[in-house]
Automatic annotation (TrEMBL):
Protein's name according to its UniProt entry: ATP-binding cassette domain-containing protein
InterPro entries: AAA+_ATPase, ABC1_TM_dom, ABC1_TM_sf, ABC_transporter-like_ATP-bd, ABC_transporter-like_CS, P-loop_NTPase, Type_1_exporter
TM region positions: 65-87, 156-176, 258-286
Protein topology in the membrane: Multi-pass membrane protein
Domain ABC transmembrane type-1: 27-321
Pfam families: ABC_membrane, ABC_tran
GO molecular function, one term: ATP hydrolysis activity
Domain ABC transporter: 362-596
Principal location: membrane
Length: 601
């Protein structure tokens, strides 16, 4: 797989860049968080004002606004208190609603965008990844981001705004030297927190990697449960899962140990700041340089501020978990798409006269190709497949037969040469149209968890019930489907595990029939079925290949005797070609294969 330079920007900036579409919602939520912080800080000021009224009465701070009566002053404080509590409750509701909705919206969009981008990546990308790792990104990592937006983002904004507000307030209320002394621990706390975050980052990167490895192990074991049981490997697989789970636990424990040490250090700095204010502020109030009310307000607010910083450990812990997940999500979204769609549109549908807009003539012109980090599979290979004819390709395993199919569908890009359909380079064709033009029946049939009808109509989502039944009859699948418990509404199970191999193969053929493509590829379509099923499949194939360009990759030579032309591949080259009879007369590789399969040797 081609490598690319990873984005070096901090994950948070990458997330904010992605979230530009939510800018208005983010600002609204941020404003509500700041307003809520202001309202939370107001009660100590009200308490100080009440103390001021008790001590100075008609000469209190409130008397400056023309309210000299003590009773009226307390009623005013009560009214302000009600307003503050109302605003506090309203802003609390606002930020809670906005941040949670933002989390849900961004989580939803990120998952869809990441999955959509994943679908557009070339097949080579998936060879370098694990299914469990990709599922961890689309599930666990995005859920981590949801938790960050639900709670942590609001906490960070509230603490930051509280620090700014209270630092300004401290310098306005307290004597300058006392304000500086009480705030002295603040830069150490903030710098220490930033340093802590950087040290924590690689630890949580490793945790997220371990999550992917653990998910991969679980996914593989669940998918291979029949193999595990048949080889009585339950204890072996349990031990392997235990090793993966222990690795995840150890990586988490390293991060937790580091995180747990942070809070006690913060508490020591908080103690220094609060004790400094307690002593110096108390002496200033005793000497008359500071009013008792101001001293009371300062004690409560600074204590509230400094102790809120103790939460920084937990906040940075959650923040770093979220950023480790964000990095993995954004790396997936930033993965470049190597195979780009062309601009020429195709219409594979039949018109009213029953003719094709795509004739289906296929040409491979001097094509060379090698899988990443492997020796060449094809070297200067040329092949002409006439429109409307059936062409078979045979050869030993690893000779390059299936690679031709992958290149024709542009799952991979040729290294040199070109492939054309109706004399148009497939790289110039719209990628979706190209793949709609080609129907693939593979030996490795994949059925989705759903009904028989849904699997037959997969890809042709506007198919009617009559279309589905017709396709099943042509594929000789209708009879066995009728005997299933719920007929066409029978659930086939994950990967079609409730059906036999032959039944799955016939559903795959029905799926290709209902697609009705101009070009049909049969990739070892009967290699894993019994003779009776093969005969049924051959009857259906003989009907659907008429007047259609068909490429049959075959292992059983008996299934291709009647095709128009047979090509024999060996080490990425065609070494023989002709009809069945012509190849037997040549007495070469094909003739030897035929004698082996016919039991003559």
């Amino acid at each position: 797989m081609p490598t690319f330079k990873r984005n070096s920007k901090a994950p948070l900036f990458r997330l904010l860049n992605y979230g530009q579409r939510y800018r208005s919602q983010i600002w609204q939520a941020t404003v509500c968080s700041i307003v809520n912080t202001l309202m939370d800080l107001a009660p100590p000021a009200l308490m100080g004002a009440a103390i001021d009224v008790l001590l100075k009465q008609q000469n209190s701070f409130l008397s400056q606004f023309g309210i000299s009566n003590v009773i009226h002053q307390f009623f005013l404080l009560a009214l302000i208190t009600v307003l503050i509590w109302g605003l506090e409750s309203l802003s609390n509701y606002g930020y809670d609603l906005l941040w949670r909705n933002l989390a849900q919206d961004m989580q939803h969009d990120l998952r869809l965008d990441a999955y959509t981008h994943l679908q557009e990546l070339e097949a080579a990308y998936f060879e370098e990844q694990t299914t469990g790792g990709l599922i961890a990104i689309l599930s666990d990592d995005i859920n981590q981001l949801e938790h960050f937006l639900n709670t942590i983002a609001n906490h960070i904004i509230q603490i930051a705004s509280a620090v700014i507000i209270l630092m300004i307030g401290a310098f306005l209320v307290l004597p300058i030297e006392i304000a500086i002394a009480s705030m002295l621990p603040m830069p150490f706390i903030l710098l220490g927190s930033l340093r802590y975050q950087r040290l924590l980052e690689p630890r949580y990167d490793r945790v997220r990697e371990q999550v992917g490895d653990l998910n991969t192990r679980l996914e593989n074991n669940i998918s291979g449960i029949i193999t595990i049981k048949s080889f009585t490997a339950e204890r072996y697989e349990r031990d392997r899962l235990k090793a993966e789970s222990n690795a995840y636990r150890r990586s988490n424990a390293k991060a937790i140990r580091f995180s747990a040490a942070f809070i006690p250090l913060i508490r020591i700095l908080v103690l220094i700041g609060f004790t400094t204010l307690l002593v110096l502020g108390g002496l200033a109030a005793f000497s008359g340089r500071l009013s008792i009310a101001s001293y009371s307000i300062a004690l409560i607010l600074v204590q509230q501020l400094l102790w809120s910083l103790v939460d920084l450990g937990e906040i940075f812990d959650s923040y770093q978990r979220a950023m480790a997940s964000t990095k993995r999500i954004m790396d997936l979204l930033d993965t470049p798409i190597q195979i780009q769609s062309g601009k020429i549109a195709l219409s594979p549908k039949r018109n009213s006269e029953g003719t094709e807009t795509v004739r289906g003539e296929v040409n491979f012109g001097y094509v060379s190709f090698a899988y990443p980090s492997r020796s060449p599979v094809l070297t200067n290979l040329s092949l002409h497949i006439p429109a409307g004819k059936t062409t078979a390709i045979v050869g030993a395993t690893g000779s390059g037969k299936s690679t031709l199919v992958k290149l024709l569908l542009r799952f991979y890009e040729v290294d040199s040469g070109k492939i054309t359909i109706d004399n148009v380079d497939i790289r110039d064709l719209n990628l979706q149209d190209l793949r709609r033009t080609i129907g693939l029946v593979s030996q490795d049939v994949f059925l989705f968890h759903g009904t028989v009808a849904e699997n037959i109509a997969y890809g042709t989502f506007d198919a009617t019930e009559q279309d589905i039944i017709m396709a099943a009859k042509v594929a000789e699948a209708h009879k066995f489907i009728e005997h299933l418990p719920e007929g066409y509404q029978t659930i086939v199970g994950e990967r079609g595990q409730k059906l036999s191999g032959g039944q799955r193969q016939r559903l795959a053929i029905a799926r290709a029939i209902i697609k009705n493509p101009p070009i049909l590829i049969l990739d070892e379509a009967t290699s894993a079925v019994d003779n009776e099923t093969e005969a049924a499949i051959q009857r259906s194939l003989s009907r659907i290949t008429q007047n259609r360009t068909t490429i049959a990759i075959a292992h059983r030579l008996s299934t291709i005797r009647q095709v128009d032309c047979i090509y024999v591949m060996e080490q990425g080259q065609f070494v023989e070609s002709g009809t069945h009879e012509q190849l037997l007369d040549q007495n070469g590789i094909y003739a030897n294969l035929w004698r082996v399969q016919a039991g003559v040797l």
